[in-house]
């Protein structure tokens, strides 16, 4: 009896492996969605930097200038959560020719400006209060998640439209999606290096000048989709 069961099992397995596996007709296409938006906020990264022969004095000067910068930011009513110290450093620098050590103190602050109408006033104020290095300015959108969702939908629509174009020539239709791969790269806004007037120019210019041209930023999504062919 056991031999008969084993024999029947082997026959079933042989028949199963002998059956031809038919490939599923399918098409793979890619799609891209782009949403262009005018940025409504900016992130400024700025640094106070001083050099000198005595570490304590250099740090003191740096701290005083940064204190003035922070008071300016508070005076402009920026939310406490919108600015933070990014890094602080006090480094010795040895000159081998002069056989002398000097000290370089830096403190970097990151500021989010949610109202771009304050941008020019803030930038000029930062420089006048001791900021001597604007590292970069990045323009962004406060509705990034919403625009990313729109870009993904546009990418899927383009993929479906592409597939329909291809198979329409063959008199076929596309069916359900088998797989969807998100090929989008993480969105990193491109930095815009802002121009700002020197101290002398700011003191001599009584008229307020606009220095900002933010333009547009592009939020992109990319997908590849496998559709069944009917």
TrEMBL record:
Keywords: Signal. Residues 1-18 form the signal peptide. One of its GO terms (biological process) is DNA damage response. The keyword Lyase does not apply. This is SIMPL domain-containing protein. The lineage of its organism: Bacteria, Pseudomonadati, Bacteroidota, Flavobacteriia, Flavobacteriales.
């Amino acid at each position: 009896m056991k031999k008969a069961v084993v024999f029947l099992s082997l026959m079933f397995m042989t028949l199963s492996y002998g059956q031809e596996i038919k490939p599923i007709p399918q098409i793979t296409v890619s799609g891209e969605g782009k949403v262009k938006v005018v940025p409504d906020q900016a992130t400024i990264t700025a640094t106070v930097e001083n050099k000198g022969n005595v570490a304590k004095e250099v740090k003191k000067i740096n701290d005083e200038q940064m204190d003035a910068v922070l008071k300016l930011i508070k005076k402009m009513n920026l939310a406490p959560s919108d600015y933070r110290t990014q890094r602080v450093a006090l480094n010795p620098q040895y000159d081998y020719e002069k056989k002398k050590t000097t000290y370089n103190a830096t403190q970097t602050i990151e500021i989010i400006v949610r109202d771009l109408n304050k941008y020019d006033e803030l930038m000029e104020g930062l420089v006048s209060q001791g900021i001597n290095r604007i590292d970069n300015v990045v323009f962004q959108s406060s509705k990034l998640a919403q625009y990313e969702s729109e870009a993904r939908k546009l990418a899927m629509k383009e993929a479906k439209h592409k597939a329909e174009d291809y198979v329409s020539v063959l008199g076929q239709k596309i069916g359900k999606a088998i797989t969807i791969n998100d090929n989008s790269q993480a969105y990193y806004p491109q930095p815009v290096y802002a121009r700002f007037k020197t101290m002398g120019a700011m003191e001599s210019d009584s008229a307020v000048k606009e220095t900002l041209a933010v333009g547009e930023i592009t939020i992109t999504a990319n997908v590849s989709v496998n559709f069944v062919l009917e």
